[in-house]
């Protein structure tokens, strides 16, 4: 083919060609960070995988890490790390057209297309082919790319069931607009408190052998306030099936009160290859979701 | 005041709160050493519900002093009960002192133990790993409204399973606001008529406000044989009808069904309140440590004088008593006449019910005058007062009760006498609102604290 084209121009190899055999898993992962109808996302490609970043008001940032092990094929040919902007809602809606209930489809993702588009194509359907091009944008600079630092000598962190965390944050909508999160050493406890036209305090007590607080590390008592709407964004859009997996969600309070919330989303095949190993997920088949929430400025 | 509750009692309390929240916006809590009473009154003061729990209903029940009382917004209490009941070990409610500004509600929640050895979750409660504490703003000097009606004074009653009543109501369109129940004497049918009609002594009829444009509305009538549908039915003498709001009835139905109780309706006639209560299987009230009543105001104007016969027409025989759709020009004409003749076709409001309660407690006449006029902020009511200056003046020389009795006795003579009866019942124009204003009041209910009549 190169002889048929203009001899002066060599055809470019794409920066990335990858194939994914479980579209629904990717949709679930991206849905976790979809807190508005229209969101601009930044996508960064690297030899390690794909990272998608969304942010809001300079106070809330979310990242989805899709490592290369999630893909059945991952051919990376770029120099440096390509970045492009894309509409998150549009991307999720397009991906949804490739997934049908009870059926596992394989899609191919290619970047860039002839006009710098993101190309999606179904590859394992026999009699038909679904193909879509998504226009990309020149990425805007992220206003803050926080280098998360731990607060003290040891990280202040706790892991709680995702369902329990979501329920607690849903309950805290009632009192008002701000939520105080405190880590207490004795007795070991995580406290969420909202005050407004009513007050609500939710205590997660830490005991061994219970699955509510799966882990708790606190050598210094800390307490920070966060706007409710940003805190709600960290759990409100987790798909129901992900919540029902009931994995732990890990929360870490960093330097200056920056809150990191981490969820795990399975991106394995819908049908487990072996029944015996259905309960076990290889780490490489999991997408990582991270939220960063800035604390409210303390009013003096 | 402090109480603690768990298990099935917590489910009943939750069900009660949900039912009360569908009636009114504000919950009045009264605690005496022997019982806890929860009251609510809707914004248009046409529906009143009271649920009482004996102290034995609770795991812990402590009241310091003769009584403790406060009021809170029902939607705040519903926020507390948003937590799934299955995960609540127990709930406690504390009013720290008599002038506290907030009531403390605490939920101790289960967590499950994951038996990792078995590779399967063994969910059994071990620790109360999660605790939720709500502080709800309260008013320790609530406007307490009381309405206690003697059930024995109602001449007509019916008892049925709530599921059956829900099925009967399912024949009516879901957007229906009010319903008319017409009760006739089961034994008054001639033998041949009874065989034809099948003894259907009770009629359910959709009520359509005659002041609205009703040409396109659906009319539904349902004739019911009490011996087939009702567990108990009591009515003697001439037919009577009551027209009341469906919304509160449906909420109460759900409550009775959840409590596994039958629903008991007590009524008298148009304009008098209808009383509802759960009826438990093993003797009324003896096997339960709680009780509930719902009182609804009814339309003042009787539907029996609209010209639609209470007896089912011949055409209904072929349908075997199923719901029949009947829209005729004659009923509409009569409805219009009724609208022009009686523009104040309204539901009696709370103050009249209060007056009734006060009088019945004192053992005086059944048709009392209102004790003063309630201070309603509705502008249209004021206009009505202005336009009805004459009738208001006529209320001063109230007719003595003896003169009313001959009128009631003579009512069989014809519609003229009934018209005169209606004129008596409309001596208190400031005591009622029409359906539209009821809707407006429902909108006003969105306010944090609904207005209360200080006189009561």
UniProtKB/TrEMBL annotation, chain A:
<keyword id="KW-0539">Nucleus</keyword>
<dbReference type="GO" id="GO:0006281">
    <property type="term" value="P:DNA repair"/>
</dbReference>
<protein>
    <submittedName>
        <fullName>Rad1/Rec1/Rad17</fullName>
    </submittedName>
</protein>
<dbReference type="GO" id="GO:0030896">
    <property type="term" value="C:checkpoint clamp complex"/>
</dbReference>
<dbReference type="InterPro" id="IPR046938">
    <property type="entry name" value="DNA_clamp_sf"/>
</dbReference>
<keyword id="KW-0227">DNA damage</keyword>
<dbReference type="Pfam" id="PF02144">
    <property type="entry name" value="Rad1"/>
</dbReference>
<keyword id="KW-0234">DNA repair</keyword>
<comment type="similarity">
    <text>Belongs to the rad1 family.</text>
</comment>
<dbReference type="InterPro" id="IPR003021">
    <property type="entry name" value="Rad1_Rec1_Rad17"/>
</dbReference>
<dbReference type="GO" id="GO:0000077">
    <property type="term" value="P:DNA damage checkpoint signaling"/>
</dbReference>
Automatic annotation (TrEMBL), chain B:
<dbReference type="InterPro" id="IPR007268">
    <property type="entry name" value="Rad9/Ddc1"/>
</dbReference>
<feature type="region of interest" description="Disordered">
    <location>
        <begin position="310"/>
        <end position="456"/>
    </location>
</feature>
<comment type="similarity">
    <text>Belongs to the rad9 family.</text>
</comment>
<feature type="compositionally biased region" description="Acidic residues">
    <location>
        <begin position="435"/>
        <end position="446"/>
    </location>
</feature>
<protein>
    <submittedName>
        <fullName>Cell cycle checkpoint control protein family</fullName>
    </submittedName>
</protein>
<dbReference type="InterPro" id="IPR046938">
    <property type="entry name" value="DNA_clamp_sf"/>
</dbReference>
<feature type="compositionally biased region" description="Basic and acidic residues">
    <location>
        <begin position="376"/>
        <end position="385"/>
    </location>
</feature>
<dbReference type="GO" id="GO:0006282">
    <property type="term" value="P:regulation of DNA repair"/>
</dbReference>
<dbReference type="GO" id="GO:0006281">
    <property type="term" value="P:DNA repair"/>
</dbReference>
<dbReference type="GO" id="GO:0030896">
    <property type="term" value="C:checkpoint clamp complex"/>
</dbReference>
<feature type="compositionally biased region" description="Polar residues">
    <location>
        <begin position="353"/>
        <end position="363"/>
    </location>
</feature>
<dbReference type="GO" id="GO:0000076">
    <property type="term" value="P:DNA replication checkpoint signaling"/>
</dbReference>
<dbReference type="InterPro" id="IPR026584">
    <property type="entry name" value="Rad9"/>
</dbReference>
<feature type="compositionally biased region" description="Polar residues">
    <location>
        <begin position="418"/>
        <end position="429"/>
    </location>
</feature>
<dbReference type="Pfam" id="PF04139">
    <property type="entry name" value="Rad9"/>
</dbReference>
<dbReference type="GO" id="GO:0031573">
    <property type="term" value="P:mitotic intra-S DNA damage checkpoint signaling"/>
</dbReference>
<dbReference type="GO" id="GO:0071479">
    <property type="term" value="P:cellular response to ionizing radiation"/>
</dbReference>
């Amino acid at each position: 083919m190169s002889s048929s084209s203009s001899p002066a121009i060599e055809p470019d190899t794409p920066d990335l060609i990858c194939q994914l055999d479980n579209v629904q898993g990717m949709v679930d992962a991206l849905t976790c960070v979809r807190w508005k109808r229209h969101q601009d996302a930044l996508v960064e490609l690297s030899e390690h995988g794909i990272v998608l970043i969304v942010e809001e008001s300079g106070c809330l940032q979310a990242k989805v890490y899709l490592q290369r092990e999630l893909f059945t094929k991952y051919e990376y040919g770029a120099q440096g790390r390509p970045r492009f902007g894309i509409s998150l809602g549009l991307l999720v809606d397009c991906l949804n057209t490739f997934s049908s209930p009870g059926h596992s489809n394989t899609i191919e993702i290619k970047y860039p297309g002839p006009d710098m588009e993101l190309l999606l194509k179904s590859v394992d359907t026999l009699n038909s082919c679904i193909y879509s091009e998504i226009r990309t944008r020149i990425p805007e600079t992220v206003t803050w790319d926080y280098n998360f630092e731990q607060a003290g000598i040891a990280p202040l962190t706790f892991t709680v069931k995702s369902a329990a965390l979501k329920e607690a944050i849903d309950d805290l909508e009632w009192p008002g607009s701000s939520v105080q999160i405190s880590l207490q050493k004795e007795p070991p406890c995580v406290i969420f408190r909202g005050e407004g036209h009513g007050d609500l305090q939710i205590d997660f007590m830490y005991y061994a052998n219970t699955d509510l607080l799966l882990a708790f590390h606190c050598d210094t008592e800390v307490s920070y306030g966060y706007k409710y709407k940003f805190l709600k964004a960290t759990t409100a859009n987790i798909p129901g099936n992900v919540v029902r997996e009931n994995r732990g969600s890990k929360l870490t309070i960093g330097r200056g009160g920056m809150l990191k919330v981490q969820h795990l989303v399975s991106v394995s095949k819908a049908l487990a290859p072996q029944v015996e190993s259905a309960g076990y997920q290889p780490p490489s088949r999991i997408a990582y979701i991270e939220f960063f929430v800035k604390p409210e400025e303390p009013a003096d | 005041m402090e109480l603690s509750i768990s298990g099935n009692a917590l489910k009943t309390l939750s069900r009660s709160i949900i039912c009360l929240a569908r009636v009114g916006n504000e919950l009045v809590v009264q605690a005496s050493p022997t019982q806890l009473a929860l009251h609510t009154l809707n914004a248009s003061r046409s529906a009143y519900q009271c649920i009482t729990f004996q102290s034995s209903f609770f795991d812990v029940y402590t009241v310091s002093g003769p009584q403790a009382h406060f009021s809170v917004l029902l939607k705040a209490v519903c926020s507390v009960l948003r937590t799934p009941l299955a995960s609540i070990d127990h709930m406690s409610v504390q009013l720290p002192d008599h002038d506290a500004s907030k009531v403390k509600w605490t939920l101790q929640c289960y967590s499950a133990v994951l038996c990792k050895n078995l590779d399967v979750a063994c969910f059994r409660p071990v620790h109360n790993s999660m605790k939720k504490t709500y502080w709800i703003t309260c008013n320790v000097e609530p406007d307490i409204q009381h309405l206690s009606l003697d059930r024995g004074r109602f001449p007509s009653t019916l008892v049925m399973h709530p599921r059956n009543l829900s099925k009967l109501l399912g024949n009516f369109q879901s957007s229906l606001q009010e319903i008319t129940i017409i009760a006739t004497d089961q034994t008054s049918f001639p033998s041949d008529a009874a065989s034809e009609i099948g003894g259907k002594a009770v009629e359910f009829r959709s009520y359509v406000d005659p002041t609205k444009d009703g040409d396109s509305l659906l009319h539904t009538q349902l004739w019911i044989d009490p011996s087939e549908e009702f567990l108990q039915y009591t009515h003697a003498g001439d037919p009577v009808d009551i027209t009341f709001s469906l919304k509160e009835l449906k909420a109460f139905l759900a409550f009775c069904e959840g409590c596994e109780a039958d629903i008991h309706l007590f009524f008298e006639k148009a304009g008098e309140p209808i009383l509802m209560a759960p009826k438990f299987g093993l003797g009324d009230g003896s096997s339960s440590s709680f009780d509930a009543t719902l009182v609804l105001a009814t339309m003042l104007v009787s539907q029996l004088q609209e010209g639609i016969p209470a007896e089912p027409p011949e055409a209904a025989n072929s349908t075997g008593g199923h719901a029949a759709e009947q829209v005729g020009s004659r009923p509409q004409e009569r409805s219009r006449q009724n609208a022009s003749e009686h523009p104040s076709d309204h539901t009696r409001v709370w103050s009249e019910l209060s007056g009734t309660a006060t009088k019945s407690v004192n053992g005086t006449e059944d048709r009392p005058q209102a004790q003063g006029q309630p201070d309603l902020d509705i502008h249209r009511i004021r206009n009505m007062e202005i336009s009805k200056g004459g009738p208001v003046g006529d209320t001063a020389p109230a007719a003595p009760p003896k003169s009313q009795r001959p009128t009631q006795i003579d009512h069989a003579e014809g519609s003229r006498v009934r018209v005169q009866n209606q004129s008596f019942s409309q001596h208190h124009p400031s005591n009622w609102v029409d359906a539209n204003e009821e809707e407006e009041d429902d909108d006003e209910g969105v306010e944090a604290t609904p207005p209360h009549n200080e006189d009561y």
